[in-house]
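Example 3.2
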Amino acid sequence: MRTNRAVLPFALLALTIAPAACGGKSHTKATGVKSTTSSATTARKPAAAKVTHLTELVRGTTPPAFAPSASVAPGDIVVLRTLIPGAADSAPVRVALTIAPAHGRGLAVTARANGETSTATLTSSIGKQVMLVGLRYTCLLPPEPTFCPAHHLTTSRGKDKLSFTTSPRTGVVMLGQVGPVPKKPGPPAPTTGAVVPTYGLRERLQVIPPHDSRSSIAKPSTTVKVSPGDTVVLISVLLGHVVGAPQRVSITFNQGPSKTLRVTGTVAGGQSSTATIGTASGSPIALVSPHYTCFLPPAFTFCPAEQTRVGAGSYTVTFSASPASPIELFAKVQGG
């Protein structure tokens, strides 16, 4: 996987993890919150008893619930969850995660924090070595609590290492898909560090209907009509004859409620591009739980957000991106 075009199916799964994106939460009008340099995300509070020790869990196909171990096969979607001990208002701690091949042709996910260690295992059900591909985590924008961004990310010889600063309230949640070990590494990334002319920008929108809807996902467009329960994707595609160093891109959008919401993308030193979200019913709508998905290498990524500004009913989020890494922001549509 070399771009984040495959985000959509996994984003639907991510919506089931973040409570604010699952519906049932009223939107919050922004009230001039000052700029922040971090994006935010949250994990659903565990249904189990109070967490007393650092706990790493995995959810695969067998069993279909979070557990210390799971049997997996290529194609399975896996969710990794790290639970942090303490009260909801406890101070954040640094959690280091290692995802590595384990004996028995499976995988081990090890969490370390405050002198504690917890490991969840993924056992191959096909008798062959498996790996996790397309590893990613979802970041909700303020005012939601955050474990984003990832720190000290390294990938080498099938082993991924990264860390987050998080609290018992948020924990850490990651997603991935089980795949076979590749026979040879993929082609090198075409992106270089060369300074190139300002990229062009094309702002597009795509609507994902609710899970129980029979509606199909339409192609991206500059203008869409949405209804409560839909998920709207804000897609910023950079254009350039030569793919060089990433450039700063800012996306500004209205939260609502309103009958029309505008999305504007701007590349530093370049032209802006706009798209419009309208209401299908004629009643006001609002965008709630805006979030984006970060990929681990070797997939290209625009993460982390360099700056997030929350104003009176609007957001401005700035990333560094290139034509190899289109930016995708997601938000749930709610009636105004």
